[in-house]
């Protein structure tokens, strides 16, 4: 006797989207999660709420000419699909770009999600029109950030709980997918002791009992591997250099990747394990929520970027241009950290921090505070707090003192002041004309042709050593784990495939555990803001397909 029509493993965004669709179709669902109820929504709650949309009214209002063709060109140039097993990932990529250029915005809007009117320009590329990166700004910020993305789906699921269609079971950790006659027919695992751990903090793993539940289908929505640094290092591809010995964590500890091998053991296949998306602009959180908690700086293009010994990173590895290109470069320098060198004028305009808790104005939908970003004489409060209290920040009026501070933060004094000064003075000379041979200066001026960048996001070009723009600021940057681009191999219905390419009966996957669709719809790299939408889209697909199959 089945306990439900469908069991969903993981109450993050993908799990919530799948559950909501199943309940809408009248199916009975058990939604399980190892964490306490307070962590409902998973990583999405902590997210910045950035959403990739194509040719939206927000873009059009800002005179951005975007199109499905341009977005597909950017996606494919960024993904670089080149493997036989990229068949389904490529199909998912095409379907996802259709969704982002089509019904995505209206679907979310109908559920109450609202967008901030300024569209951000993430991952700008810099290699040429068919290469990596967004040709135009497409990063739409949810009004209310991550919690604003989770809310509509949580609301739908809670309504279904009230109607008796969905049962929520927290502190249920799945250890096995049960298989009978070649088909997955349930889950087995341990009931963990009750926990009052605050959202995002580690909860106890002490078991108090076991469970064994049966259903016609199981949907796995358990997230990626970014909280498991040993696994990240084990799967680290040689094209990204050697794996870092120390990383900051951009995700809570529950992002442990366990369900990947559990699903593999039941007969599902995993592809593109070596594709991952980690950031190079990580700073240690002075007020951490989870272990090794790091925050990603979402940088504007003006900071000068130096490796650990003071060499300027080569073009086009400017802030916000090519995340993995920069990562590969850094991991070949022999050191794991780099430096931004900037001014007060730049930090004020160009530093944003990723994460809902780092953007209380947007998260709390406080319009007055948001407007303050444009007119304030200082950086937003959370950025100022990092400047004052973060261990990675050095603030000085004089370059020699700045370098002294930088060298005090590393085991050996690696930066030579004369060499750094020579680079900065040379770059400063390039600012005198409206044209330049320095590609970063050209890129800064190019960015300012986009009006929101000119008014609120990109500082007016100035000499870094001009005392009027000071003090000088140096920020030590470390590698920060975040997203898993590969995962469970699925077809366009979200059905998990076996190694022979046939569906493993009874099991679906969605969200980060499935590489956001297909086992890696991003290919090698991402355009940003594509992960939350990938969870929603793949969760919706898997939920609808499973609802039909168990009909
Ligand atoms: C700080 C931050 C900022 C981000 N900003 C953005 C952004 O602006 N735009 C964007 O597109 N993306 C962003 N992301 C990425 C995005 O939030 C995630 O990729 C997405 O939320 C993943 O959702 P998921 O449902 O696949 O997995 P998760 O949110 O990880 O949820 C998985 C759930 O499964 C549970 N689980 C795992 N294993 C088991 C098991 N064995 N038994 C029971 N339960 C289990 C976990 O406890 C968890 O609750 C950000 C992420 C972070 C952390």
Task: Throw out a few tags for this protein.
single chain, 551 residues, alpha+beta, 8-stranded mixed sheet, 19 helices, 21 strands, globular, binds flavin-adenine dinucleotide
Radius of gyration computed on alpha carbons: 23 Å
Strand content: 15-25%
Mean pLDDT: 97
Shape: globular
Bound molecules: flavin-adenine dinucleotide
The number of helices is 19
Largest sheet: 8 strands, mixed
Structural class: alpha+beta
Number of strands: 21
Helix percentage: 25-40%
Termini separation: 16 Å
Low-confidence stretches: none
Summed up:
By secondary structure, the chain is α+β, with helices and mostly antiparallel strands. 33% of the residues lie in helices and 22% in strands.
């Amino acid at each position: 006797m089945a306990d439900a029509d469908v069991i969903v493993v993981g109450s993050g965004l993908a799990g919530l989207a799948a559950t909501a669709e199943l309940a809408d179709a009248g199916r009975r669902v058990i939604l399980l999660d190892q964490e306490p109820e307070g962590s409902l929504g998973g990583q999405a709650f902590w997210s910045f709420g950035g959403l990739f949309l194509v040719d939206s009214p927000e873009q059009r209002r800002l005179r951005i000419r975007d199109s499905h063709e341009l977005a597909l060109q950017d996606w494919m140039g960024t993904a670089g699909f080149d493997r036989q097993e990229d068949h389904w990932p490529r199909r998912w990529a095409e379907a996802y770009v259709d969704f982002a250029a089509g019904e995505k915005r209206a679907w979310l809007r109908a559920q109450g999600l609202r967008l901030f009117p300024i569209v951000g320009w993430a991952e700008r590329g810099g290699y040429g029109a068919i290469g990596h990166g967004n040709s135009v700004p497409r990063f739409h910020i949810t009004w209310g950030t991550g919690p604003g993305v989770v809310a509509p789906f949580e609301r739908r699921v809670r309504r279904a709980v009230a109607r008796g269609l969905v049962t929520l079971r927290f502190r249920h950790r799945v250890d096995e997918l049960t298989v009978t006659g070649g088909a997955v027919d349930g889950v087995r695992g341990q009931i963990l002791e009750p926990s009052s751990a605050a959202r995002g903090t580690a909860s106890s793993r002490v078991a108090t009992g076991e469970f064994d539940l049966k259903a016609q289908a199981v949907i796995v929505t358990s997230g990626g591997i970014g909280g498991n640094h040993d696994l990240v290092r084990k799967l680290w591809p040689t094209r990204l250099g050697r794996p870092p010995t120390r990383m900051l964590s951009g995700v809570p500890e529950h992002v442990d990747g366990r369900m990947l091998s559990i699903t593999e053991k039941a007969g599902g296949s995993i592809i593109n394990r070596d594709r991952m998306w980690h950031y190079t602009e990580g700073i240690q959180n002075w007020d951490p929520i989870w272990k090794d908690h790091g925050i990603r700086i979402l940088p504007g293009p003006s900071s000068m970027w130096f490796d650990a010994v003071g060499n300027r990173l080569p073009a086009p590895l400017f802030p916000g241009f090519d995340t993995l290109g920069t990562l590969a470069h850094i991991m070949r320098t022999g050191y794991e950290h780099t430096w931004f060198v900037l001014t007060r004028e730049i930090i004020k305009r160009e530093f944003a921090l990723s994460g809902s808790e780092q953007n209380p104005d947007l998260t709390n939908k406080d319009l007055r505070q948001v407007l303050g970003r444009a007119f304030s004489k200082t950086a937003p409060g959370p950025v100022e707090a990092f400047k004052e209290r973060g261990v990675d920040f050095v603030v000085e009026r004089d370059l020699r003192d700045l370098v002294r501070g930088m060298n005090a933060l590393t085991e050996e004094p690696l930066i030579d002041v004369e060499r750094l000064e020579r680079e900065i003075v040379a770059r400063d000379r390039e600012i005198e004309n409206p044209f330049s041979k320095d590609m970063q200066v050209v890129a800064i001026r190019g960015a300012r042709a986009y009006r929101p960048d000119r008014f609120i996001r990109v500082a007016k070009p100035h000499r870094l050593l001009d005392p009027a723009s000071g003090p000088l600021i140096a920020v030590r940057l470390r590698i920060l784990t975040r997203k898993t681009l590969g995962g469970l191999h699925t077809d366009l219905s979200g059905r998990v495939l076996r190694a022979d390419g046939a569906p493993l009966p009874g099991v679906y996957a969605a969200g980060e555990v499935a590489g956001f669709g297909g086992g890696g719809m991003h290919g090698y790299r991402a355009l940003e803001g594509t992960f939350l939408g990938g969870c929603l889209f793949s969760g919706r697909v898997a939920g609808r397909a499973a609802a039909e199959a168990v009909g």
